Amino acid sequence: MNSDVQYIIDATKAHHELFKNSLPMIASENVTSPTVRRLIASDLGHRYAEGKVGHRYYQGCKYIDQVEAKAIELAKRLFDAEHVNVQPVSGVNANLAAFLAVAAHGDLLMSLGVPDGGHISHAKYSAAGIRGLRIKTYPFDEEKMNIKTDLIVKKILELKPKVLMFGGSLFLFPHPINEARSAADEVGAKIIYDAAHVLGLIAGKQFQDPLREGADIVTCPTHKSFPGPQGALILCKSDVADAVDRAVFPGTTSNHHLHHKAGLAVTLAEMLVFGEEYAKQMISNAQALAQALYDMGLDVLCKDNGFTQSHQVAIDVSKCGGGAKVALNLEKANIITNKNLLPWDDVNNPGNPSGIRLGTQELTRLGMKEPEMKKIARFFKRIIIEEEDPEKVKNGVISLKKGYQKVHYCFDGEGAYEPPFR
Q: I want to staple 354 with a disulfide (CB 3.0 to 4.6 A). Which of 134, 250, 342, 399 is the partner?
């Protein structure tokens, strides 16, 4: 075999081996079911289907139309949405399309600041800035890790934004959409809700229901607490449907990664059946993990509010060397996390922030429950507080993970999550 090809295969094998023996706790990742993995490897990944179902600019799309139409149907049913577009290829792509649909260059956007948990696509660094939007951040309560509900209406009426952006990257509690809706109507603003991290919880009816609470558009990356392939969809009210569709194609997307859309359709079907059970367990695991970490002496945020109502947990590790050091030491023990800005950090100096962010969605997908969260918390204590050599903790991590190598909450019946190379 060509040496370059072998190099790539070997690196991929090594990656699979790493995650087979690791605890994956990055809140923005998940694993798909075996059926979805097969579809992602199908011939659909070779094809183009620009345009809408039944109105393509290429021939050979008869069965592609069936797949995409089914994905739209299932998404409408799962989220009770008036309109669905499944063609965005990423969360940032979906956000950019939403901005294009309802905002003009120079309009004012209100969103979470990045240190407060906002995603970079809600800020000047990414999609919002590319669209040319002016940006003001919401008043934020650092103790409750949420937007200040008592001030948001006042700020909306004062600033008169064209777009209100809710959702975030560090997202522990539901956002005050209901409270903002009447003020948004008064100033003529549209509400966009970025459900990237909490889409699986919304699908399982365990978080908040942004469409019912007043969002005009919901952008939905499909690979975090929602356990689908990488990509996105957009849910919206019918009055903005045409603008959203034009903003997606031809506005921001050409071909839309058809193999991923087939996988998305299957994941939507899985979540219609298993979503509630899965979402409940994700949240229960997050709360159990947070409580155990707190009991072991770590500075877990939002103790007075029950730590979290999502799949995420946030820890201030500034007294333990900072997020960069802690995340690196955890990785040495095969615990995969990420450093994360907290509200008191400098957004212009993200290299070693105060926090780390944890997610329970992938561990839950692999069958772990509350007892395993307590065992994992003990690993954290040994590494972060007791400063034990991570290499000595690694054996315990590998031993625990051996019992959790199958995907749950899917039609494959606890299908084995095995790498394609043996």
A: 342
Give the HSE-up count for residue 32: Cα atoms under 13 Å, Cβ half-sphere: 25
Give the Cα separation of 337 and 359 in Å (integer).
8
Per-residue pLDDT tens over the stretch 344-373: 998 877 888 999 999 999 999 999 999 999
Q: Where are the beta strands (DSSP E) in 263-350?
A: 299-300, 312-316, 335-336, 338-340
Task: Provide the residue type at 54 as one letter.
Answer: G
Domain 274-416, CATH among 3.90.1150.10, 3.50.50.60, 3.20.20.100, 3.40.50.1820: 3.90.1150.10
Convert 222-243 to b/e letters by CB count within 10 Å (16 or more is b). Answer: bbbbbbbbbbbbbbbbeebbeb
Q: State residue 422's pLDDT score.
A: 39
With tokens 């021939």, the residue in question is: 59
Please report, for residues 153, 345, 346, the alpha-carbon distance to residue 114 in angstroms, rounded to integers and kept in the order given: 21, 10, 10
Query: What phi, psi does 209 have (nearest 5°)?
Result: -115, 90
The mean pLDDT of 116-129, rounded to a whole number, is: 87
What residue segments make up the domains of the chain, in order of their start? 35-271, 274-416
Q: What would the pLDDT profile of 402-413 be if each residue is shown by its tens digit?
A: 999 999 999 987
**Calpha distance 370→241 (Å, rounded):** 42
Alpha-carbon separation of residue 362 from 32, 225, 264, 289 (angstroms): 10, 8, 17, 14
Section 384-390 average pLDDT: 97
Q: Whole-number mean pLDDT of the chain?
A: 95
Q: Does the bond joining 250 to the residue before it have cis omega, within 30 degrees of 0?
A: yes
Q: Report the run of H or E that residue 273 belongs to, with start and end.
A: helix 258-295
Rg (CA), the chain: 21
pLDDT at residue 122, as a whole number: 86
Residue 421: predicted pLDDT = 44
Instruction: Spell out where 275-365 has E strands.
Output: 299-300, 312-316, 335-336, 338-340, 355-359
pLDDT-derived band at 214, boundaries 50, 70, 90: very high
Our measurement of the distance from residue 220's CA atom to the centroid of its chain's CA atoms, rounded to an integer in Å, reads 8
**In whole angstroms, what is the distance from residue 175 CA to residue 154 CA?**
16
Class of domain 35-271: alpha beta
Residue 417's pLDDT band (cuts 50, 70, 90): low
pLDDT of residue 39: 97
Residue 77 in tokens: 């049913």
Q: What distance in Å separates the CA atoms of residue 279 and residue 289, rounded to the nearest whole number?
A: 15
Which stretches within 41-148 are classed as H helix? Answer: 62-79, 91-102, 127-130
**pLDDT at residue 120 in the model:** 85
